[in-house]
Amino acid sequence: MNTPLAVLDGTRSPVFGSSCLHDLLRRWLPAQRWYAGRGRITAVTVVAATELTPECQHLVVRITEDPGENDAYYQLFLGAAADPAPRLRRHVLGRVHAPGGRDLLLYDAVHDQRVAVLLLDRIRRGGRSGHLRFESFPRVAVPAGLTPRVVGTEQSNTSIVYGDTLILKLFRRIQPGINPDLEVPTALARSGYARVPAPTAWFFSTSPFWGTLGMVQPFIPRATDGWTLALRSASARGDFTEQAHSLGRTTAELHTALARAFPVRDPEPRHLPCLIAEMTHRLVHGAEAIPALRRHVAGLRDIYSAASAAGDLPLQRLHGDLHLGQVLHARGQWHVVDFEGEPAQPMAERRSDRSPLRDVVGMLRSFDYAGHMGAPEAPGWAERCRAAFRTGYGEAGGFEPDSVPALLRAYEADRAVYEVLYEAAHRPEWIDVPLRAVARLVAAA
Question: Is residue 90 included in any domain, yes or no?
Fold first, then answer.
């Protein structure tokens, strides 16, 4: 039996407060790319609501799942209309009964151009509206009159591009505290680092907690993401080593800039043993779930054991989820975006200090994926790119990745095990990519 929709703190609308909204969201949310839940939704609670227009409200909803460890919070922009515009029809949640016996269709209003224009205008003017707060940097003007379009590739967030000038990123799943995708680029901009677009404005919620909802950044026109470029090169059996080398240098320069913007600390003596224990736990869990991993358990344990005797690296703020899809190439330069980290992780974990090898390995694994997808019969493409990336990083960074082979191998092995688990759950047709990496790493060790 469904738990009825509870409505707290702010909305008296019989449409957006309707108990049938629970059933609509139960069906609609799991189909969204940005929804991170995996269990059965048992309760939907509107914990904050602010009217943007008479036909649109901003909602913060708490989602309870069974089974589930903790409730999750999402922000929604819901519109209601008797006859939505044709372009909105594919974003309809369903039908609700309105006062006066009318039936209205609820839809995801992020895709409504009128709402997108209104939202940017509200951010531009600043101030307060219900549970929402809007802020911007002093002396940075957010222009008006820009035509919005929603970026088609949704991930853990939704982005709206205004003209070719600005991009507004909406964090669909929200957590208490400042989102690192706002915190880190802001700190980098203040330190003078120019390869990351600097936030110009943002907005946040004050109920049920203080949490970042979205931010505005300059849009980089005519940019192509690294994944598209790498896949195109691999498919054509092209030479991508120059770009990979440049990307290695950019990554090292980013880490240097992060070390200037945030404190760097030496790891405690127990850091590496705890890290190896965490890697081993993930391996054991993975081997129990994925039979193909079991024959590599002994070899992976040896890799982790060798790393435990190696020296540790200083810990610092990182990108946190670096791969080819998180970098853009425009006008002969790489730019780094999306510092949100892994949205499923707690905010404290995403903002923690970690070894720079995490970012290095994330990019190395991404080259492996691009080589497998684009040139499955030419594995040398990925290896050449990986080597060029490491060389570029070493030339511009504080350490050579190849100078810490045991640590590098352990970090990559752990990342590959994580990928095996992820692909088994989400993209089983891709599982051979990390499984081949595991076999290669064990053989090399």
Answer: yes
Question: Residue 321: CB partners within 8 Å, gap ≥ 6?
Answer: 338, 340, 341, 342, 362
**Residues 13/14/15/19 CA torsion (nearest 10 deg):** 120
**Low-confidence winner among 102-106, 312-316, 366-370 (lowest mean pLDDT):** 102-106
Do 164 and 300 have their domain in common? no
Summary mean pLDDT of the chain: 91
With 0-12 CB in 10 A as exposed, 13-18 as middle and 19+ as buried, what is 266? exposed
Residue 1 lies in a domain: no
CATH code at 189?
3.30.200
Q: How far apart are CA 110 and CA 247, in angstroms?
A: 34
pLDDT per position as a tens digit, 283-298: 999 999 999 999 999 9
Alpha carbons within 13 A on the beta-carbon side of 185: 23
CB within 8 A of 70, min separation 6: which ones?
Answer: none
- 425 located within any domain: yes
Q: Which position has the token pair 């909803």?
A: 61
Please tell me the distance from the alpha carbon of residue 174 to that of residue 160, in angstroms, as a whole number.
18
What are the pLDDT digits (tens) for 61-97? 999 998 777 899 999 999 999 999 999 999 999 988 7
Residues sharing a CB contact under 8 Å with residue 203, sequence separation 6 or more, in sequence order = 122, 123, 132, 133, 134, 135, 213, 214, 215
Query: pLDDT of 212-251, one tens digit each?
Result: 999 999 999 999 999 999 999 999 999 999 999 999 999 9
- For residue 72 the two structure tokens come to 């999750």
DSSP string covering 376-405: TT-THHHHHHHHHHHHHHHHHSSS-GGGSH
20 and 100 within one domain = yes
Residue 27 inside a domain? The answer is yes
Residue 328 burial by Cβ neighbours in a 10 Å radius (0-12, 13-18, 19+): buried
Range of the domain at 204: 113-218
CA distance linking residue 135 with residue 147, whole number of Å: 21
The residues with which 74 forms a beta bridge, in sequence order, are 61, 173
Same domain, yes or no: 365 and 398 = yes
Number of structural domains (the chain) is: 3
Tokens of 264: 């760097």
CA dist 147 and 243 (Å) reads 33
Can you give the pLDDT at residue 337? 96
- Rounded CA gap, 274 and 271, in Å? 5
